[in-house]
């Protein structure tokens, strides 16, 4: 199960097995989406399969995740999603009303994100060889001229901004899956981030890195960026916005909010000179009202994420080996 | 299970559930891939999930199907595949050597088809919620200027050509799955059809329809084209190339070769004036040596496929309700 968790084991599978097998430069970038040259345009192209349990949860469904997840992967290249594909693997016996509710959620989420479902596929497998509904979406979008956003571009001096409070999606899933109550209902943050990214790029095209910290959470995303760029990331842990309900649930469950999944948040690495303006633009957008500076890139500890703790000490934020919560997306 | 078989039930699911839910014109075309406008280019975009059992079979593997299937869906729009995504859903406990063999097959098939694996994803589900390995590929390619290939373009007078003998993939899968022996080993015909389509388009850009008759076989493909265009298709059944081994196996199993899956064949509808030249170009290509004219479009029985049998009678070739062989691709 750990190989599917988005942590170190997932990375090994990709680096040591898939990348050599497919042998090409494009895949080597390992961003959330590939940026591809075509005559007259640069395309972003991304794919994700969704296996979340349960199919419906507070704040959304597998249908919302399937649209928003791929829209967001494209947005992390600076691209506005144009077209999505949508492929179902249905388990024999799943009710058509369930499939219908998911398709309706996909349609509504696509409309909200301004993306067109262009093509699809449906396969059915025998009972016991699936889990109700699995969905794959792939997406394509155009990358604006002058935009070059990828993990390798983080450099010392960059300011690290998160777009809002973290951990809501993971805790929302966990609460329904385990039947836990935390006083207040925690809702998933699933949302399409394309227009937030557009608002940021209207300030400056020189955004260095964007990442949506889904599986593996913020801690994993920061580690991947530090490793890809060879830059150190200094995190000010007390500046990371953690909702009270998430902090409480994490304490109860023995989880670290830094590794809990998000579905409607992004982390941005921007040049210091642009940071204030980008932060202001984010806060003016409905999906960025809780944006906060949470750290910076440093020349020290290259490739590592180090947190300054509340007490003035430091701790290394590692890449998790597997996953805290399986099948979160 | 029938809803995944590519027959009438699959069509109902798409028409009555998915298309209304996603509500857009692009999806309404319902070809093997969508043709999408982007500044300066027309893109083809297609997706397919592969759930074939077993993962390895005579003539190929799920990896070959995953590449060739999507390359071929793009080719059926006249597009040369440029980039593929590749997403795995792995069942907990599947051996990494198995995943490695599949990834190697994907890499080799991509190289053979001249397509780049640009982006990917891996999810892992618990044992009992998958079946070893499921693979989704999505692909994008460019449609040449002046090419407009889609099922709606079939018109009375078109000549119907199949690129080679039918039924090999389905019988190859069936033979290993059921442990049957038919004297000679039947191998899957899985192959990338992009270069064959290029050779055809070098003769004329006015190819009306292309379809790779996979799930549901040639009979289903012809029915879909007849229904989409409102044209009658008159099939000369004795001209359909059925290998002896396929005919024998079908007799033994009680199957109709017209509904058995293919993975490296196409059916083309071309204007009568171009038919001889297109057929010659196909026969000169390694994947089209067995090409044959199998019928024509007629003004009679609009939307229906009618076969002239060996004895001079006629029979209606219906759209099958579900599927003869589940999980064939």
Account of the protein in words:
The first copy, chain A, is of the alpha+beta class and 329 residues long. Chain A folds into 2 domains: 34-142, PurM-like, N-terminal domain (60s Ribosomal Protein L30, Chain: A, 2-Layer Sandwich); 151-317, Phosphoribosyl-aminoimidazole Synthetase, Chain A, domain 2 (Alpha-Beta Complex), CATH 3.90.650. In chain A, 33% of the residues lie in helices and 25% in strands. Chain A contains 9 helices and 14 strands. Chain A has helices spanning 8-22, 25-28, 62-75, 96-113, 168-178, 194-203, 217-229, 244-253, 272-283; strands at residues 34-38, 41-50, 56-57, 60-61, 80-91, 116-125, 133-142, 159-162, 209-211, 232-236, 267-270, 292-298, 305-308, 314-317. Chain A has a 7-stranded mixed β-sheet with strand order 9-11-8-12-10-13-14. A 5-stranded mixed β-sheet of chain A has the order 1-2-7-5-6, with helices on one face. A two-stranded antiparallel ribbon of chain A has the order 3-4. In chain A, a hairpin with a 5-residue loop joins strand 13 and strand 14. In chain A, helix 3 (62-75) runs parallel beside helix 4 (96-113) and helix 6 crosses helix 9. The interface between A and B is large, with 71 and 71 residues.
Could you list some keywords that capture this structure?
9 helices; five-stranded mixed sheet; seven-stranded mixed sheet; 14 strands; 329 residues; 60s Ribosomal Protein L30, Chain: A; homodimer; globular; 33% helix; Phosphoribosyl-aminoimidazole Synthetase, Chain A, domain 2; PurM-like_C_dom (chains A, B); PurM-like_N_sf (chains A, B); alpha+beta
């Amino acid at each position: 199960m750990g190989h599917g968790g988005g942590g170190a084991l997932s990375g090994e599978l990709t680096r040591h097995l898939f990348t050599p097998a497919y042998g090409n430069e494009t895949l080597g970038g390992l961003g959330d989406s590939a940026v591809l040259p075509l005559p007259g345009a640069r395309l972003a192209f991304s794919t994700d399969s969704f296996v979340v349990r349960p199919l419906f949860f507070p704040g959304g469904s597998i249908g919302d995740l399937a649209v928003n997840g791929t829209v967001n992967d494209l947005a992390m290249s600076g691209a506005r999603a144009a077209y999505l594909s949508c492929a179902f693997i249905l388990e024999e016996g799943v009710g058509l009303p369930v499939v219908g509710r998911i398709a309706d959620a996909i349609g509504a989420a696509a409309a909200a994100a301004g993306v067109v479902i262009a093509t699809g596929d449906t396969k059915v497998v025998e009972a016991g060889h699936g889990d109700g509904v699995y969905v794959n979406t792939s997406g394509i979008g155009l990358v604006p001229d002058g935009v070059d956003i990828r993990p390798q571009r983080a450099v010392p001096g960059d300011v690290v901004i998160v777009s809002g409070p973290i951990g809501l999606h993971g805790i929302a899933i966990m609460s329904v899956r385990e039947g836990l109550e935390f006083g207040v209902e925690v809702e998933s943050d699933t949302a399409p981030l394309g227009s937030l990214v557009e608002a940021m790029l209207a300030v400056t095209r020189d955004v260095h890195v964007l990442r949506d910290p889904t599986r593996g959470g913020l801690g994993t995303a920061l580690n991947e960026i530090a490793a890809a760029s060879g830059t150190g990331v200094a995190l000010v842990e007390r500046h990371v916005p953690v909702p009270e309900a998430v902090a409480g649930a994490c304490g109860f469950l023995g989880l670290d909010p830094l590794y809990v999944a998000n579905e409607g948040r992004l982390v941005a690495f921007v040049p210091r000179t642009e940071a204030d303006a980008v932060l202001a633009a984010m806060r003016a957008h409905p999906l960025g009202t809780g944006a906060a500076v949470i750290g910076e890139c440093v020349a020290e500890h290259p490739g590592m994420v180090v947190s300054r703790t509340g007490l003035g000490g430091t701790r290394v934020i590692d890449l998790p080996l597997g996953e805290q919560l399986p099948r979160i997306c």
